[in-house]
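Note to self: keep these together.
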Amino acid sequence: MLVVKDLSVYYGYVHALKGVSLEVEDGSVIALIGSNGAGKSTLLNTISGLVRARSGSILFDGEEITAEKPENIVKKGIIQCPEGRRIFGHLTVYDNILAGALTRKNTREIKAQADRMMELFPRLKERRKQLGVTLSGGEQQMLAISRSLMSNPKILLLDEPSMGLSPTMVKEVFDTIRRTSESGVTIMLVEQNANMALKLSKRAYVIESGVIVQSGNSADLLQSDEVRKAYLGED
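Structure:
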């Protein structure tokens, strides 16, 4: 579905991504783990067209999208749920969800899908009339994911969904991601919580200083001494 080949990205003179290659299969959950500043968000932003690559290519369903504008990439079905959630605090939960459908025209379909989001996320249904700013961090993350799903993504790029959340809310958010995957959405998950990310995903990539240093089945990486020491806090 998504193929990244030998991608290089610069911020001025800083070489942020150095020949990154990876693949995301249709219907799968893949994880990208690494420390702060490793290049995880840069990769998502480049796939989304928000950052331009110096070299390399990005193929989506066999089509070259490396130089496409962000709005065209969204229309093709690549939707990014950004780090920090970025919900509209002054809008109600329900209106936040509707805001995710700005590229769509059929109001009946939009309303029907918004109602499905309420069923997929019962906590949001309970709070549908509340302002976004009144939600907890975990609830705001659920809202950000549901808003992203309103664009009917073929692939959802999730950027640090557990950041700043309590352990209880982290579990709830990952349960949300699991339900989203089970609904048929392909997911590329960027996440510092390596343990949760590897348990949820089928395949994973480890990035350090803009370079993919390990890749493989997530279950195998969970057992890797190198990964356990570097990202799971184990000796």
